[in-house]
Design goal:
- The chain has 116 residues and is mainly alpha-helical.
- The chain has one domain: Helix Hairpins.
- The chain is built from four helices and no strands.
- Helix 2 packs antiparallel against helix 3.
Amino acid sequence: MTALDVLAAALLLLGAVFVTLGCVGLQRFDDVYARIHAASKASTLGVVLIMLGAALRAAQTEVAVKLLLAVVLQLVTAPIAAHLIGRAAYRTGTELGVRTTVNELADAKASRDPME
């Protein structure tokens, strides 16, 4: 076993742990906003780590390049999708969880001119 094999295995294992934590967060958190956080942060990092580990073990350069392109696309699209889901949830009036104490959007809305 080479050092590259150990690094690839560590990335794959760590990625699987983060994806699992993201799944647990989806089940345990009480509102849509916390669930979005778990799904976008932990799962994105987990998928990226898994793809990096697979790219290290890829036998062909073309496969590694495709995996690295997938990493870039994951890092670009997942935060944007999470933001849009959260924005849509807020605009439709989805309630905050009982432990949520700060609502910056409501504070900003209240401080705007009512004539707008």
